[in-house]
Give the backbone structure.
Amino acid sequence: MEYRRQQPYAIRFGFGTGSMGPALKYFMIACAAVYVAQIFYPKMELFFGLVPYVVLHNGWAWQLLTFHFLHGGLWHILLNLFALWMFGTEVERVLGTKKFVIYMAITGIGAGIASLIATPNLDIPIVGASGIVYGILLAFGLLFPERLILVFFLFPLKAKYMVLIFGGIELLSTVSSGGVTGIAHAAHLGGMVFGAIYLYWDKIRWKLRNSYYRTKLKRLRKRYRIIDSDRDQNLLH
């Protein structure tokens, strides 16, 4: 997949401009509806939240898709919905709704896979769309690298630097904590990593293919060089 950086000629403040796309809108509505359901049926987190131990030992793979819709409290869902609107509106507009849905699915599942790898024995549910949020944040930083963002509504920072800082924080937090904290740092990092793979997949595939053919050609050259050498020695005798 190829993408173009937007507005390379201007540095300006802004986010969430334009009308919200259908994919983002319906995803946010679904998250809000599920949160209301959680209030009445809190035990649904055990079935639809991501419990790494249960997924790996009981095969409850659907949790990789469902845990994004659940949240751990009012502030948790409000912050995630705000971030989705803040960065996702323009990302969906640039990628298009179809690719944006694919992107959310990949970053969401990637966040879940990262959690399984980091905390395979965790027996309490992980909930929240934060992995998708971090994936969208990465896409925003790549598409609008020069856009100034008011971090915590106080500090202006270019989007590309914000992505690097947030990604670095999640990487350090994941390594230092071993993935076991009250915040799913591994899921955040997984959303960004899988998002980057998706956005750069064409370049990655091209480099992998070229590397494969270079290695194959090198082996063929080595093979025929040995054959020629043996033939030359036979001629001498």
Observations:
- Confidence is low (pLDDT under 50) at residues 7-14.
- Residues 201-236 form the longest helix (36 residues).
- The first strand starts at residue 148 and ends at 151.
- Residues 22-199 form a domain with the Rhomboid-like fold fold (CATH 1.20.1540.10).
